[in-house]
Amino acid sequence: xxxxxxxxxDVNRFLNIFYVEFTALYKDVNxxxxxxxxxxxxxxxxxxxYISKNLHTFIRDYNYEVGxxxxxxxxxxxxxxxxxxxxxxxxxxxxxxxxxxxxEYSYEYNNNVKKNxxxxxxxxxxxxxxQLNVPSSTL
Length: 139
Description:
By secondary structure, this protein is mainly α. 55% of the residues lie in helices and 0% in strands.
């Protein structure tokens, strides 16, 4: 995360947005996941837009529901897309952290995610992290 913050202005910008957005969502999100996705939102907007538009493709449970039963093939295709579209190595690391289904050894982790953790990788909570987005057409 420290690679995102280059100066005091970046820290101040992050804290201001964190305060506003987290106050609205804190009961429904995991604090660590929220901080990480907020860093991507502020410092790598193209990656954030890609994630928000394709969120459910990062979540293994959703992909099983639509018939993507070969986890290794799914993981390989997603990893290739991420590394092609996202050039910031720090952002790639964060994505692999908050979406553990992309990691090679994530099977047990994903099956043991507790609902009370409110993780971004949980299909029941993932949309909440993007509720406060302003459509780019209105900017």
